[in-house]
Amino acid sequence: MVPVETLQKKINREIARRSAGLNARQPAELYAPIDYSLGMGGKRLRPVLLLMAFNLFSDEIEKALPAALAVEVFHNFTLLHDDIMDKAEVRRNNPTVHVKFGENNAILSGDAMAFLSYQYLLECRSERMFDVTNLFTKTAVEVCEGQQYDMDFENRLDVTEAEYLEMIRLKTAVLLGCSLQAGALLANAADETAEQLYNFGINLGMAFQLQDDWLDTFGDPQKFGKKIGGDIVANKKTYLLIAALEKAAEGTKSTLYKWLKATEFNAEEKINSVTEMYKQLGIKEITEAKIEYFFLRAAEILNQLPVNDLSKKHLIELSNNMLGRSS
After folding, report:
1. For the chain, how big is the Rg over CA atoms in Å?
2. Rounded to whole angstroms, what are the CA distances from 68 to 54, 152, 155, 270?
3. Alpha-carbon span 34 to 39, nearest angstrom
4. Is 95 helix (H, G, I), strand (E, B) or coil?
5. How far is Cα 200 from Cα 300, in angstroms, rounded to an integer?
6. Which of 78, 172, 236, 317 supports an S-S bond with 209, CB 3.0-4.6 Å?
7. Closest by alpha carbon to 300, among 227, 200, 178?
8. Fold for domain 1-125?
9. Three-class SS state of 123
10. From CA 275, how far away is CA 241, in angstroms rounded?
């Protein structure tokens, strides 16, 4: 099995090569934001997962590189548009694309990235391309559905845990599942095995997004790459807030509602107040338990995957690293 670091280097080299080609095209104003978006870095988790799944069944990794690139370009397109909708100013410790290039340029460049992802995907040569393209399209629509739910939740104070978990399944987890299943299909793995990898990705993605929620309140801002408390300031309906509203007695719930309805406030005061309520309600521990639930489900699926343990080693290590686990 090829190590994660080697796969990341392969993807980064491919991104650099493709970006150089795009930068030679006109109009430059369309392609510069794409280059900036892809050049902001990141761990390239989704393309790495696709290549790792492919590598479970084939050593010819180069054949899957266009699909891995497609997944990464599509993912960055969603981040670009999400940042516009969320009015986010920082991504990976850098100004967001719309802040640097303007909102209209960012929207159009994001649109181009969505179409480029399909162009790259279709460069793959596999007898399973019809299935992979259908999976990719289904996933793309689901990600949009998840984003719509996320926006809908902004105007609601009655979002349930079940609704929230479905939203993050669509917005975040399905793309991880798609990456793994697509990699397996491109390597001609059995349908049942590819489906197992999809379900592994779904549960890993759920744990990953819940941890992202947790980190926004309790994480280290230098490691997190964003300002701590942004979700609290923006009244994002995270798992933490939903659990707090469910668990809080009337007095605490009233204070939470006061902050949620406030139109003028000191951001630091709001973050400190809400975080303190989370601590008193045990929300930190409740969220950690839910993260553990999905992580263990993912681990069990991976354990049952009909592939030898040595081949699964790097996938297990990556899963642990995604959630900050040492083993």
Report:
1. 20
2. 10, 31, 36, 41
3. 8
4. strand
5. 8
6. 172
7. 200
8. Farnesyl Diphosphate Synthase (1.10.600)
9. coil
10. 10
Average pLDDT for consecutive 10-residue bins of the chain (327 residues)? Answer: 92 95 95 94 93 96 97 97 89 91 96 97 95 98 97 92 98 98 98 98 96 91 72 93 96 94 94 96 97 96 92 89 68
Q: What are phi and psi of 95, to 5 degrees?
A: -60, 140
Question: Would you say 174 and 205 are in contact if contact means Cβ atoms under 8 Å apart?
Answer: yes
Instruction: Copy the structure tokens of residue 199.
Output: 């379900």
Please list the residue range(s) of the chain that carry CATH number 1.10.600.10.
Answer: 1-125, 131-327
Determine the Cα–Cα distance for residues 122 and 240; give it in Å rounded to an integer.
Answer: 40
Q: Give the right CATH number for 131-327 from 2.60.40.10, 2.130.10.10, 1.10.600.10, 1.10.10.10.
A: 1.10.600.10
DSSP 246-261: HH--HHHHHHHHHHHH
